[in-house]
Amino acid sequence: MQIASWNVNSIRTRLDHVLRWLENSDVDLLALQETKVDDPLFPSESFRAKGYNVSFHGQKSYNGVALVSRHSLEDVRLGFTGELTADLQTEELSQQKRVISALVDGIRVINLYVPNGSSLKSEKYAYKLQWLSCLERYLRATQLRDEPLCVVGDFNIGPEARDLHDPDRLSGGIMASDAERDALSQALGDDLKDAFRLFESGSGHWSWWDYRSGAWNRDSGWRIDHIYLSSDLQELALSCKIDKRERDREQPSDHAPVIVDLSWELEDESGDDDGSFVAD
Length: 280
Known about the structure:
CATH class: Alpha Beta
Helix content: 10-25%
Strand content: 15-25%
CATH topology: Deoxyribonuclease I, Chain A
Distance between the termini: 10 Å
Mean pLDDT: 94
Strand order of the largest sheet: 3-4-2-1-12-11
Structural class: alpha+beta
Shape: globular
């Protein structure tokens, strides 16, 4: 089973890119971020016409997340309030459409678009830290159900120096500050691990290249798009890769897809889904 994450920076602008990529890939589930469209205008029929199931949670011009799947999307949950008891904080933080989750073939997939934060002196930075604190509560609540868990998305954080093209200059700044990194680490806890780092320990592997300053041509990127797996799925991970080719298309997103391949199938000898799993 292949699960991918891709910040498409406007699904309507990049729809042809996404449909072509899906047609040429073996991905079972694609999690999209920054769809930038109200739900009534999401191009769901374009995906359904090709046999995909779609769930989305969006808003006009900003943010927005979606799940596009070859399999049924079950128990879809929207925003932090889809998991946490509603209070003033979770309701406020859920106003920006940044969180969607669903069960896909027995795996709980959580798709996140973490706030950027703008700058260390911005009120958006304080919002980002508050949002990550709420994410910690959200993930702990999700883990209580003991479902195999795959958390994907644009995290807008380079977790370590090796995830930045120029760590000497960028470390400590926005998307690479100690407070952001610590908050993400706290949210992930001990169980969730970075799938990409299960296979690749080195630097030079980026998922985002700023449109400005010729970052793509100079390969001055960041690795800020991640896939995290619970321990039961870590054992079944076969690979995790970044498809840089999509960043080189005409009018591309500034992000590239990240794909994890899992040796996963439901054990279904009787024809009934019992929710258990075995390695291929």
